[in-house]
Design goal:
Blueprint: E1 2-6, H1 19-29, E2 36-40, E3 43-48, H2 50-57
Antiparallel strand pairs: 1-3, 2-3
Length: 58
């Protein structure tokens, strides 16, 4: 079991708002059966098999 934290950084955007990017990323991982997802103010923490986590991030 591995724990991974994903943080999105606004590079090349015209705004510091990341809500649309966070929502899209969250939608891609929230229904994964073997990954536990928790949003926090600084990123998204995911827990599961390392191969599944890396596949989800890609």
């Amino acid at each position: 079991m591995a724990i991974l934290e994903l943080t999105l950084v606004p590079v090349g955007t015209q705004t510091t708002s990341l809500s649309q990017y966070v929502a899209k990323a969250y939608d891609n991982v929230r229904n994964k059966e073997n990954i536990k997802v928790e949003l926090n103010p600084m990123g998204t923490v995911m827990q599961g098999d390392i191969d599944e986590l890396l596949k989800a991030v890609r």
